[in-house]
Amino acid sequence: MQQQTRIQGLSWEVDRDGVLYISLPVRFIAFRALVLVLILTPTASNPFHYEQKYMPDPVYEEMGPHARLWRVYLDESQMHDVEMIDDSKDSVDVLLVFAGLFSAVVTTFVAQTSQDLQVASDVIATSLIYELVNLQRAMLSGASSDSVSPSPLTPDSTAPETSSIVWVNGLWFVSLALSLTTALLSVLVKQWFHQYATMPSGTPRDRSLIRQFRFTALQDWQVPLIVGLLPVLMHAAVAIFFGGLVVYLYPL
């Protein structure tokens, strides 16, 4: 006579001879197999296990030119630098393209409105010709030349400055200056990052010291802060441009 019992997925049975048969669930067998695979997997496959990745240093060579310490430092710093440069490079590239296009647009507007700050040469020429015609008429009629009113415009005349024209040109020139500054700083930042990522040849210790020197200089020159200020400058340039556009269109 056989007796079968089941408790929480684990079942067993006893036959008539008293032999015990245990049935294990499939999930339990799969879990045991996974544990064995993880235990038997060599740790050398882990790229962060530097004790397995690099051979131990000889005695008294722990700080030598080819010591494991410098190799580990280069691996860790490379991952940090790649992440830092990739994040900043994408934003700088976008700002550089946008700043170039925006500067071209603002330059077109400034080229038109800046002419209102000075008298056009054709207007001056027309005024002087009109004065000359009046003088000739006075001479033909025998009148005195003093009776002819002089032209109000001369080659040295300046245009009558109105507050709106001055404000429009002032705002747009400031916007153009901020946009060009953003483009210039973006180019400089790209050059800094390119020089920072270019690692010269040499021993691991030399390359580690050079990398640390460049990283310290990058922090001293506040390059991360400059990268963070680039969008602020670009946003300010766009806001000032729209402010000048409102002043320009308001009298219309």
Question: How would you describe what is shown here?
Answer:
- A 3-stranded antiparallel beta sheet has the order 1-2-3, with no helix packed on it.
- The termini are far apart.
- Helix 3 runs antiparallel to helix 5.
- The chain folds into 3 domains: 3-41, no CATH class; 68-118 and 161-249; 122-157, no CATH class.
- Residues 1-7 have low confidence and may be disordered.
- The protein has helices at residues 26-40, 50-53, 68-113, 121-141, 163-197, 204-220, 223-249; strands at residues 3-7, 10-14, 20-23.
- The chain is mainly alpha-helical and 252 residues long.
- Residues 70-250 form the DUF6535 domain.
Brief summary:
By secondary structure, this protein is mainly α. It has helices at residues 26-40, 50-53, 68-113, 121-141, 163-197, 204-220, 223-249; strands at residues 3-7, 10-14, 20-23. Pfam families: DUF6535.
